[in-house]
Amino acid sequence: MASSFSPLQLGHLQGLQAQLLRRYEHRPLVSCLSGLYGCRWRRERSCRQREDCCCNKLEGVCFALLVAAFCVTLVFLYFWGQAKNDYNDFDWFTFSSLGFWFPWSVVLLVIAAAFFTYVTVLMLLAVCLLSEGQKLYLHWSHKIGIVVSLTFSIAATAVLSDLWSKELTTLLLSFRVTAPFLHVGGVLLLTALSWPVALHFFRMSSRVRRGLILGFYLSFLSALYLVPLGLYSPCIKEVGTLGPPPALIGHRGAPMLAPENTLMSFEKAVETGSEGLETDVTISVDGVPFLMHDQTLLRTTNIQQVFPNRTNMAAATFSWSELQSLNAGAWFLSSDPFGTAGSLTAEERQRACSAVGHPYRDTWIHRILEVIHNESSINSSQVLWLPSDLRSLVQELDPALQQTSGSRLSPEDLQSNNIVRLNLHYSDMSTHSTSAYAAGNISTNLYVVSQPWLFSLAWCSGVQSVTTNNPQLLSSITAPLFLMSPDQYNLVWILTDLLSLLLIVLVFVFHRWRERGLAFCSGTKVSLDNGTYSKFKTEMSDIWSVSSINSQAERTSNLATVTQH
């Protein structure tokens, strides 16, 4: 037997259905979001009607600029964050241009992070407002902030790409280790965006707009799902195929722990696990070899105080007695280029300040061989000879030297010149080339590798050694970062995509069900009016009206009866 409902019960049930389907409005939250985004602290009208758009044309352009600023600032922040390996080079480049030392690389990183954080907050506010079905009204001050953030990021990227083009290669190298994790992050981001996309898709009346929004979203999503098919990372390899870690060679010693090219720096490098030392030799005007990387003495000595009129003269034009009058360690404590001078003990700080002159080890051709053979305990077989000038003469005078080349020639050409080691910039890293050289008994050394992710990439690529400023950190790494087997990565990839697809389907199904339910309730004229449904109120009014008529008829009947009596 079919159950029957009274008008009162039916109205109550329909009101309950409408309440369940109705999007719950977080009024205090929406007011706060609108206030932060557009300085409108009263709740704005929701775009409830199907023909409503989330914003007008001007606000649509501003939202597009916001999305562009988010993407550009993210790219620049990632780019500059991955360039940390070369911050010291950048700071000394600015030193040579400005004449004073300052950690501009860190300042640039802080500015990039601040702009990205600001734009990201605005982006989150906009997405939350769209998820609540609110119209967008961006305050004019935020519009200026977006333009400034976008302009700064584009200009900084362009200038750095022009002056420091090798860092673009660093950016590409970083993708070899971070791409698997960036893929997972991108999938999670697009999955989260499915909520506002689905909401506005089902609320739009224009089929063209609906097709565009769904087409763009599904295109990006499909491309992101398939990215791993073209992804390559040397750190995704079978278990047991990883070779030994690259040997560490101290770059001018351990320059993060002591003044570069000093005996103290070399000792620190050996103490922290370096198996070799890299240095640069200059010969004084009176024939004494000393260690110096720069063309001038300005950066690493107190020449401005001792010889103020000769600060820009070449280091090779000074005599040994003049060089001995300079201090080669005080600059390290005063400028603290790596932020590590505070780790030195009081005794070590005193030793750095009193490091007068430069210790020497090599000189030019005959002189260098004389020093090695007669004035040092270094065996010729321990020396890596890098200069290409008069290489044949050097080989004739001392064939035990390890001939090293800085040019990426073919293995056959290198073997014909008796080259046993390559010394390449880390941007030239290649797993295939390293393997090909190793097959010809030619080992590969990369310079300058100081960050763990770059060291991990070199390790996975089979590189035999790296020159580093940071042996104290790299020597503590026991396994490459981001290392995983192909099976593990395939599992992560497939599970991430499937879970994302499932969640997106559920979100779209939910919004479709809710919007259809809302449309049905709107067709039956069920709407909220101060917390009471109007249909329910109408039915209650009819009931009270009928009751009033009946009561009035009863009173009239009773009055007639009394009159008769």
Automatic annotation (TrEMBL):
Subcellular localization: Membrane
InterPro entries: GP_PDE_dom, PLC-like_Pdiesterase_TIM-brl
Domain annotation GP-PDE: ranges: 246-478
Topology versus the membrane: Multi-pass membrane protein
Gene Ontology CC annotation, any one: membrane
Family matches, as Gene3D superfamilies: Phosphatidylinositol (PI) phosphodiesterase
Keyword terms: Glycoprotein, Hydrolase, Membrane, Transmembrane, Transmembrane helix
One GO BP: lipid metabolic process
Molecular function GO terms recorded: glycerophosphodiester phosphodiesterase activity
Signal peptide positions (record): none
Presence of the UniProt keyword Cell wall biogenesis/degradation in the record: no
Transmembrane segments annotated in the record for this chain: 58-81, 101-130, 142-161, 181-202, 214-232, 491-510
Superkingdom to which the source organism belongs: Eukaryota
PANTHER family: GLYCEROPHOSPHODIESTER PHOSPHODIESTERASE DOMAIN-CONTAINING PROTEIN 4, GLYCEROPHOSPHORYL DIESTER PHOSPHODIESTERASE
Family: Belongs to the glycerophosphoryl diester phosphodiesterase family.
Name of the protein in question: GP-PDE domain-containing protein
Organism of this sequence: Eleginops maclovinus (Patagonian blennie)
